[in-house]
Design a protein that fits this description.
It is a single chain. By secondary structure, the chain is an all-alpha fold. It has one domain: MFS general substrate transporter like domains (Growth Hormone, Chain: A, Up-down Bundle). It has 13 helices and no strands. Helix 1 (19-47) packs across helix 8, helix 4 runs antiparallel to helix 7 (173-194) and helix 10 packs antiparallel against helix 11 (302-328). The N and C termini lie far apart (55 Å).
Length: 400
């Protein structure tokens, strides 16, 4: 049957699912499955063989953010100067080394040191991957591209925890860390097969002749993105410990439900991101994130934790694509690395400072308190993001 002609007045949709686009998603899948294994293994490893506590878990989980945060602007600039490919490959290989060495870390200080080095790897791989995605995505389908590409990330986070639990049960913690390292090597190999995606000329100079390290238009929406990442990070770090405190036999189930909702939602609703104003959608997503965390915090039952994970997953389904659509809309092709580096600093702050801050709440009143504090932060983030929406045409505020 012949394809239906494009209706008059409607432009043909630009192609999206190219070979390079799919391979980038597969590289992300391998890398973030390794991350998912560590999400499950790290808190149990730190509170088990390492002999630390909930506060130590937050410190170990978030330590990578200190080095990653410092390097994001540098990596973003290097993406625009050197290209995306060398940073993706190098970052994945460095991550593999850090994950494998964690199997031999018997003290919290050593784990924290390896997490700091892992931050270097994470900054290189993730910033370059986001810039490559912006290169490969047609502008008219950027939100849809973000949704599809992120399936690799969230499918990895979904499959990683049960894989980690399986590896720990079948072998040991060492088996889980080595398995994660192998996945990071696979990510490097697949990323290398993509080739360079950078387009455009040299990156622009700043006002005083230096290179642009921070993309200033990205800062305000990145604040809202930061709130979503901190709230999500509280769940990722403490979901397994909260499930354990509730007597759940399968402590990875809440993470599995959360990730499954995000993956299915990103596929089913990918086109919505390009049809709804990005900041409006991001505000609504933060409200859903707050609701899911509050449900898990107030009703301290296994059913409430699983239901809260699902509601949280609905919010995260739309939050990241919406925020990055808003952020990349402010950047030219030669500024995408800088925009990626600036926006992804929210990931370091959110997954670094968030677990540390919420770790204090967990230490004081239990993991439910951490979820409650995260819900409050997500609510504030929703209000901030809503305030960033442009005034409607003709509104007196738009002329001010």
């Amino acid at each position: 049957m012949a394809a239906a002609p494009t209706p008059p007045g409607r432009a043909a949709r630009e192609p999206l699912l190219t070979s390079a686009f799919v391979r980038l998603a597969l590289a992300d899948l391998a890398y973030f499955t390794a991350v998912g294994v560590s999400i499950l293994a790290l808190p149990l490893y730190v509170t088990g063989p390492v002999g630390s506590d909930a506060a130590g878990t937050g410190l170990a989980f978030g330590a990578f953010a200190l080095s990653a945060l410092a390097l994001r602007p540098v990596v973003g600039h290097l993406c625009d100067v050197w290209g995306r490919s060398p940073l993706m490959i190098g970052g994945a290989l460095l991550a593999a080394a850090c994950l494998a060495l964690t199997a031999h870390a018997g003290a919290l200080l050593v784990v924290v040191a390896l997490r700091l080095l892992l931050g270097v790897a994470e900054a290189a791989f993730f910033v370059a991957s986001l810039a490559a995605l912006a290169d490969l995505a047609p502008e008219s389908r950027r939100g849809e591209a973000m949704s599809y590409n992120s399936i690799g990330l969230y499918l990895g986070i979904t499959l990683g925890p049960p894989l980690g639990e399986l590896l720990i049960g079948a072998t040991s913690f060492a088996g889980a860390w080595y398995g994660a390292a192998v996945l990071a090597v696979v990510a490097a190999v697949v990323a290398g097969s993509i080739g360079e995606t950078r387009v455009g000329g040299r990156p622009p100079h700043g006002a005083h002749g230096g290179w642009v390290w921070v993309h200033r238009p990205a800062i305000r929406p990145s604040v809202g993105f930061l709130a979503s990442v901190m709230a999500m990070g509280a769940f990722l770090v403490y979901a397994a410990l909260h499930a354990e405190s509730l007597g759940m036999a399968n402590v990875s189930l809440p993470l599995l439900v959360y990730g499954s909702v995000v993956v299915v939602g990103r596929v089913a609703f990918a086109r919505i991101v390009d049809r709804v104003p990005a900041l409006t959608l991001a505000s609504a997503a933060l409200v859903a994130i707050a609701a899911g965390l509050l449900l898990a915090a107030v009703l301290r039952t296994p059913a409430a934790l699983v239901a809260g994970a699902a509601v949280l997953g609905v919010g995260v389904t739309f939050s990241t694509p919406a925020f990055f659509s808003a952020i990349f809309a402010t950047a030219s092709p030669t500024e995408r690395g800088a925009a990626s580096g600036t926006a992804s600093m929210a990931l370091d702050l959110g997954l670094g400072i968030g677990p540390m801050a919420f770790g204090l709440a967990a230490q004081a009143g239990g993991t439910a308190w951490a979820f409650g504090a995260a819900a409050a932060l997500a609510s504030l983030g929703a209000a901030w993001t809503w305030s960033l929406r442009p005034a409607p045409a003709g509104d007196p505020a738009s002329a001010s």
